[in-house]
Amino acid sequence: MKKRGMYTGILAVLLLCACACTGQSADRPGTVEDVTAPTVATEQLTESVYPEHIENAFAGQEDTPASELSYTGERELTITGYSGKAGIVRIPAEIAGKPVVAIAAEAFAGNTALTALYVPKTVREIAAGALDQCTALRTLKMPRLYGKAEESRYLGYLFGAQDYNDNAKKVPASLEYVILYAETEVDPYAFFDCNDLLCVSLGNEAVRIGKFAFYGCKAMQYCDIGEAVTEIGAYAFSGSALTCLKIPQTVTGIGLGILADCAGLEILEIPFVGDGGDNRYLGYLFGAESYLFTAGYVPTTLKKVVIAEGCRKIDDHAFFECNPIQEVVIPESVTSIGLRAFYGCQRLLSVSIPGVCRSLGDDAFFGCLNLKNVEMANGVTEIGMQAFFRCISLERLELPDSVTRVGNSAFYDCRKLGEVVLGNGTYEVGRNAFLGCTAIETVSGGAHVTFAQGNQNITEKMQ
Question: Residue 130 in contact with residue 152, Cβ under 8 Å?
């Protein structure tokens, strides 16, 4: 595989805004230069490089003249060759009023000048080896992967591979960008071991990504899944170089280990964690077959998880011992946070709990040693037992008026907690709820609250 820089500029906010193919290119969008995706120095890369290339590839590029193409057929045409000298080829959808529906075997074979190829939506089939030995091809935009037979629906088929195991040998190392725009299903193993691809876009028509579809794509840093996908098969992106991934809200089924061995992943946006099925805990996405094994599977690089709006519940053990995560964005749609949902997330820095979330389960944030800021919107009614047990970095706590009960040992050993503001609706603080909170200086609110035993340190500070 070719050596590349670390593309550090795409790491920070790619997931939140770049997964939508928007933005304006700084290098004249729609020009030939955009089609061939010119090399950019590492320090110049931004979070929009890949989406902009997807958006602008071939924009404004005219169809290749029919005089430079050879073809056969009477009512429907098959492209059999190309005699032009240009590195960028945009096959026309029709020639002399006749639709172009196929590309013959070896039609472009051996063309070492071809750098970018656009295939129109009218094409229903590309024969085996049509692009064999196109060693300069860098950008390929086409409506679907080809071969009529199911066993030929893998990328290497276009380059003469006998099966998907030969993808690495036959797909040229130059090919970095593949843009699909009418595919309905990416078959299992379709891009298996295509280890030089940087960027893949599936458009907005793909509905399913098969198992192992992008397995071993060691250089792939960006994948635009599209807004129609409903299912992602097991180990689909395993071993890729993704630094971020946005899984759209349309997805209802996710297979085991779709992100296994993605050692550089930093930001992940997902439609649900804990809505039942096989995705009840985050470690499942990384290959852990039980929430108890999560700590050994989640990559150390993963810093941020965004749960998309629409998720109703963060289930028991959903983020159990997801130690690397520093930030989790909880949407306004979440109504409950389950038992030990964030147990042992030692690097979690802050959390904001929406008002529709009525309850925090027992041990919900147990042992989140670096949790410094907790915001609860008005609407939360109950804080479970040991919910914030040993959150030793928590400095200030303000409970909304909606909180009626604080469970036993809820804030046990929050040793840096200096200020507590109780809600006006809080009427019960459980046994040892604030035991070990030796830094408390001021306590306000809670006009009608009753404290169980083990809370002398807080009752002495009541104003």
Answer: no
* 8 Å CB contact between 383 and 360: yes
Question: Could you please report the per-residue DSSP string of 319-381?
Answer: TTT-TT--EEE--TT--EE-TTTTTT-TT--EEEE-TT--EE-TTTTTT-TT--EEEE-BTB-
Question: For 18-35, what is the mean pLDDT?
Answer: 36
pLDDT-based confidence at residue 151 (cuts at 50, 70, 90): confident
Q: How far is Cα 359 from Cα 383, in angstroms, rounded to an integer?
A: 6
Contact status, residue 211 vs residue 255, Cβ threshold 8 Å:
yes
Q: Say what percent of the chain tops pLDDT 90.
A: 78
Strand partners, 286: none
Q: What is the DSSP string of 270-321?
A: ES-SSSSTT-SSGGGGGT-SSGGGGGGTS-TT--EEEEPTT--EE-TTTTTT
277 sits in the region (left: phi over 0; alpha: psi -120 to 50; else beta) called: left
* 8-state DSSP, 18: I
List the structure tokens of 147. 């071969």
Any idea how long the chain is? Answer: 463
96 touches 75 (CB < 8 A): no
Q: Within 13 Å and on the Cβ side, how many CA atoms surround 122?
A: 17
DSSP 123-139: --EE-TTTTTT-TT--E
State the distance between the two ends of the chain, measured CA to CA, in whole angstroms.
67
Q: 23 pLDDT band (50/70/90 cuts)?
A: very low
CB 110 within 8 A of CB 133: yes
At residue 32, φ and ψ (nearest 5 deg) are -60, -35
Q: Under a CB-based contact definition with an 8 Å cutoff, are residues 452 and 435 in contact?
A: no
Residue appearing with tokens 């809370």: 455
Residue 371 has pLDDT above 90, yes or no: yes
- Rounded to whole angstroms, how far apart are CA atoms 422 and 435? 16
- DSSP 8-class letter at 462: B
Question: Quick one: tokens of 64?
Answer: 């290749």
